Amino acid sequence: MKPKLLIAEDHLAMRAKIASLLNGGFDVVASVGDGDSAVEEANKLMPDVLVLDVSIPMLSGPDVAKRLKAHGCKAKIVFLSVSTDVDQINTCFSAGGDAYVSKMRMATDLSYAITEALAGRTFVSP
Amino acid sequence: MEFFRNLLSSNGFMSHGYCYMWKPGLVWLHVVSDSLIALAYFSIPFTLIHFIRKRRDLPFNWIFVCFGAFILACGATHAMEIWTLWHATYWLSGAVKIITALSSVPTAILLIQVVPQALELPSPKALRLEIAERTNAQEALLAEIVQRKQTQEKLRRSEEELHSLAGRLITVQEDERKRIARDLHDDFSQRLALHCVDLDLQRQSLPVGSDMSRELERLLSDAETLTREVRQIAHDLHHPQLALGLQQGIASFCREFSEQYGIAAELLNDGNLEQIPAAVSIVLFRVLQEALSNVAKHSGSDRVTVSVSVGDDQARMCVTDRGRGFETKGVQSDGGLGLISMRERLRLVRGTMRVTSSPGRGAEIEAVVPIPMPERSTPTCA
Fold first, then answer.
1. A–B: how many Cβ contacts below 8 A?
2. Residue B186 and residue A55: Cβ atoms within 8 Å?
């Protein structure tokens, strides 16, 4: 059975691209465009992995992660961002992230990062 | 004694009454006339004394004293005229007359001397004219003062309006920057990232190590750099941490600056920076960005101190480095180092900037902006 995936990304073309990259190996159960919906859908659908844009509206990526983790959510969280800022990466891992993928490198890194996260390891795009 | 006896005796003379043959009409004509004259003369000095006592400011008031003495003496001669009608004490009468002469002659001479000076005194009419002129001038002056005050008030209001507009300009400009930054970050950089993904996918479909694969890798690398630069521009246009307040904005910017350039930025805060008005905060933040950019580009220093303080009525920010420094004269006049831009920004919020530097002795940029806030501690500059 393919791992269940929830995508949270506000940019539509980017969201479609993420889905197309992951569709083969994962079961994309939902795609949302803001932080509040991400929390709601994650609590409802119980995905194995949450692919979470860092800068989504309503509730930022790290805040979504914190809220889910605080409610005992077991889903692995893979952050996506254009930025490779160290402070931001640290913030994401402190919020409960398992992987951090650069959007520019997600064709190569995203599937691998999800697999690593599911295996209990961390990953950061080089 | 003999002198006084002679003075008070008739010495055989006949009284004046005999000259008038004791004709009652003639005698009484002289008595009444001389009495009235004497009374009038005796009263005049008292009037003069009263007058000069009341008008101590009068010039030549000693002439009134002379007049008083002279008129008193004149009165005495007329009194003697009555006395000598019945008593032939002509020596006494003569003595009174010589006293009158001694007081009248100097008075007459002094009067001649005083007249030219007295003539120079303005007449009441001239004084009235001058008072009227001065009153008119004073009224004109008062009108001008009122007009000037009105003009000053208009100027003050206009200045207030200007600064209010300047404040709005700053916030509008910041909003515009925010909008551009958001567009760059939320859309432009996302689309560039998508291009990177597509390039990466294309590269993956090619044999590893092929020319085309290497070319795509180069294009991907360029696109990544471009994406990062666009993101950096968005970040510079609008520093997200500034939304959390000046203190956090500056702290965050200093930390990023240190990481980016390897220059230790020490931050010293004094007072509650969050009480600085928004427009001033934005200006100080932009000045800090410019000043730190100069430190990174020109100072060669590995350390910079940023000191921000809030005083009784002003906010002060100093950016100090111990780098190679520069000649301030040339730099200030040709607008080098973005100093003119910093000054212009500060001027919008009535702020000023001072640049202190010399070759080999580092540089200090100090920005001071007045803020209407009572009860603050005295600002200090590190």
1. 56
2. yes
Over residues A76-82, the mean pLDDT reads 94
**pLDDT tens for residues B116-167?**
888 888 888 888 999 999 999 999 999 999 999 999 999 999 988 887 788 7
Whether residue B378 has pLDDT greater than 50: no
Whether A108 and B255 lie within 8 Å, measured CB to CB? no
- The distance of A49 to chain B (nearest Cα, Å) reads 21
- Reported pTM: 0.58
Percent of chain B with pLDDT strictly greater than 90:
36
> For residue B305, what pLDDT is reported?
94
Residues of B in contact with A85 (CB under 8 A): 256
Separation of alpha carbons B376 and B382, rounded Å: 18
What was the ipTM of the complex prediction? Answer: 0.91
Picking from B200, B220, B227, the nearest residue to A82 by CB comes out as B227
CB contact under 8 A, B227 and A11: no
- For the residues B21-32, what does the mean pLDDT come to? 93
Arithmetic mean of pLDDT, B315-325: 91
Element spanning A117, H or E: helix A106-118
Angle at B14 between CA B10 and CA B15, to 5 degrees: 85
Chain B interface includes A17 (CB < 8 A): yes
B197 has a chain A CB within 8 A of its CB? yes
Q: What is the pLDDT of residue B375?
A: 46
Output the pLDDT for position B55.
Answer: 81
The reply to whether B189 touches chain A by the CB within 8 Å rule is yes
- Show residues of chain B in contact with A14, CB under 8 Å: 190, 193-194
